[in-house]
Amino acid sequence: MELSDAIKGRRSIRRFKPDPVPKEVIEKLLELAQWAPSAMNRQDWRFIVLQGPQKAELLKVTGSAFGDFKPMLEANFKDMPKVIDAAKVFLETMGSAPVVILAYGGKFPNGKEDPYSVALAVQNLLLAAHDAGLGAVWADAAVFFREKEINALMGMEGRKLACLVPVGYPNETPKAPPRREGRIEWR
Ligand SMILES: Cc1cc2nc3c(=O)[nH]c(=O)nc-3n(C[C@H](O)[C@H](O)[C@H](O)COP(=O)(O)O)c2cc1C
Q1: Is any atom of ligand 1 closer than 6 Å to the C-beta of 14?
Q2: pTM over 0.85
Q3: CATH code for position 143
Q4: How many domains does the chain have?
Q5: What is the DSSP track for 12-54?
Q6: In Å, what is the CA distance from 145 to each residue of 105, 154, 161?
Q7: From ligand 1's centre to the CA of 144, what distance in Å?
Q8: What is the pLDDT of residues 122-175, one digit of tens each?
Q9: Does the beta carbon of 139 lie inside 6 Å of ligand 1?
Q10: Which residues contact 6 (CB under 8 A, 6 or more apart)?
Q11: Is residue 143 part of a domain?
Q12: Of 9, 26, 105, 121, which residue is the least packed, with the fewest Cβ within 10 Å?
């Protein structure tokens, strides 16, 4: 796939077929993720790949976040109850993705959090998933409301959870949201 086609053709996928994704395919996505640039080449990210019972445990926690998320959804999506219902189902199921990857950031040498390097790695992962015929999405609503609980479940300490990335074969073909004008200034 041409790089420009991969960049423009990638969509956030929130509904997945139940078909399992071979381990080698997930390994390849994570290998490509780690070719991202990183601050001082520290590559200080961590990925946890969840399937089966551990994923089910995670979904209990993410699903429990809906009550806290609802007021924000209602304020942002007035008169769009379908969007709110879809957000509930997504939190409870992560779109039925067979795999959910947790992406954790690391630190700069001065001890400050580095949220950037892991974000670039996740973008690589999203593009690589698209190139492999898979779907994925950067999902962080559960992180806003349940980060502590998720980290406790994972036994992860001292790292910022950037996002959850459900991965699987797409069961939807969303339209590309148009890109907005006026974001660039030439001076
Ligand atoms: C920082 C960030 C947070 C996001 N959080 C969520 C999320 O919690 N749930 C979700 O379904 N999509 C989430 N998305 C995906 C965006 O909604 C999506 O990228 C946007 O609507 C544009 O659609 P596209 O990715 O198909 O181009 C997030 C994306 C980013 C970059």
Answers
A1: yes
A2: yes
A3: 3.40.109.10
A4: 1
A5: B---B-S----HHHHHHHHHHHTTS--GGG----EEEEE-HHH
A6: 18, 16, 12
A7: 14
A8: 999 999 999 999 999 999 999 999 999 999 999 999 999 999 999 999 999 999
A9: yes
A10: 127, 130, 131
A11: yes
A12: 9
